[in-house]
């Protein structure tokens, strides 16, 4: 946890999870679930969270700012699991691509993941866990070419890091949802690229993604690494 957070003897026995994007959507659901499961959670996000818990601490940081993120990560003393759930979506036809939009999505997704692993993986204990929240559209989607590209990059990145950390039995996996009922999905800026409902007839729920992350952080998932798990309500069929 941050240097200014004292540990009681009871807290010292709890596992610590770092969760990005904890102020809303999937990241918030993951943070809440892990707290219920007895984890201590350190949340990283630009915005303040709207919940309070004695085992939760928040660091306000812009994940797109590499220098600020590096400084924040250097203040973390302990981590047993890392979940990178922060995400950003900008839409548009490939003929109308705004390179600035592509750059900010790359920084939010791939650059932030790289920095998180660079500075936190040395602290992970043997059998530590890493989960990146990807997207089903990483294989391609209309009006989402640069978003898809940034999420597709997770696959090569995660599998490579999983290989490098395998000798410490640290797992690295990706959970890739289809359209999920989050504030990002309701952003007016993406109105022209509204998601189609999966065959189940409803959007994926954030707590369903959180449950899979909770499993991947649990003892029974100790042998799952380098994998992408798609949660799509039948959209991939």
Distance between the termini: 42 Å
Structural category is alpha/beta
Shape: globular
Integer average pLDDT:
90
Summarize the amount of helix as a percent range. 25-40%
Total count of helical runs of at least 4 residues = 6
Question: Tell me about the biggest sheet?
Answer: 7 strands, parallel
Compute the number of strand runs: 7
The low-confidence runs, each spanning 5 or more residues with pLDDT under 50, are none
Describe this entry's structure for a reader.
With 237 residues, this protein is α/β, with parallel strands linked by helices. Helices cover 33% and strands 15% of the residues. It has six helices and seven strands. It has helices at residues 9-12, 25-36, 66-74, 99-120, 145-165, 206-216; strands at 16-20, 40-45, 56-60, 81-84, 129-133, 171-177, 228-231. Helix 4 links the parallel strand 4 and strand 5. Helix 2 (25-36) packs across helix 6 (206-216). The chain is globular and about 55 Å long. The N and C termini lie far apart (42 Å). The mean pLDDT is 90.
How would you briefly describe this protein structure?
This protein has 237 residues and is α/β, with parallel strands linked by helices. It has 6 helices and 7 strands; from the N terminus they run αβαββαβαβαβαβ.
